[in-house]
């Protein structure tokens, strides 16, 4: 029922207001064929947050179209995945809240935690202050790698929820295996399960995303008993390292991480299984450093070319001629040319500002595979169009389509 207000552009109210017959199609339905997006001949504009009629009582996680920030390509989407240690058993939010905090301390204000669980914002007290963090994740208490236990497996739940495709992460932080060890499963069997899980992540996540596969913390007697498990944990963690490095050596987007190394054995466990607050804090700091190092190394490199030339000087006297050479270094720095806005709001790059530009924004957000960058449609979004359409400098969002509408109405 509305969402994006197009009624002021004429047309038949219930048909969406704006007369789109100029774009072809079946007149009575408004001309422009948007039926692929559902609704009566058009997109359900209410899915796009503030402009739509979102039910405020329903949780809208970061990884769907209900959150505009998820559409901003400047956001770095991090998916924490694993078992109860990722969930945060024993200290609500676990390492994730500290990771969020320490990344912000490092200057990252464009982090979006994604996953099917949690909520967009939660708070905790840290150093005497109330701190807000992004609570979305894919952590499931009691879950194994792939073989179903009494609770389930991470492999199965991610597939059932289509969680990786939905989250579309740039970075995945995976810690899994504690419940397999607690069930005394053979390391060789766990290793194969881990390979299957990694293969699933690689098949589902974006091709330029990075999967960090980590060791697990120690497992003491604690709540499950069983005595000293240090040898068992060491054996499994060695397998994790071997598998992760093997994928990395084969050119896969997999990197080994060692959470076990940042913890002080069982001293940082609260119940013999899950880290205590101090342990989770250490994990958050560790992951923040890992993510920071990765993001810094992933920045586009500036190309530097050094050219060496030779200058020859000849000095002559009545008896001796001396020739000396001295190299002179010339350094040339070149950077990839930056696109510039050709016309603010001209998303389809046709040299004029009209409602077709606002429509293309909404199409690109709702169906990126067809209308987004590199989409299959004849008239899909281009890098130039994306730059032109970013009216407020925070990435292409529904707000930009609304801003174009206001300009056309003379309201702005």
Automatic annotation (TrEMBL):
Record CDD domains: Dockerin_I, XynB_like
InterPro entries: Dockerin_dom_sf (IPR036439), Ester_Hydrolysis_Enzymes (IPR051532), SGNH_hydro (IPR013830), SGNH_hydro_sf (IPR036514)
Top-rank lineage group of the source organism: Bacteria
Record protein name field: Lysophospholipase L1
Chain intervals for the UniProt region annotation (Disordered): 1-71, 301-333
GO term, biological process aspect, one: polysaccharide catabolic process
UniProt feature, compositional bias: Polar residues: 53-71
GO molecular function: phosphatidylcholine lysophospholipase activity
Annotated Low complexity bias: 303-333
Residues covered by the SGNH hydrolase-type esterase domain: 82-281
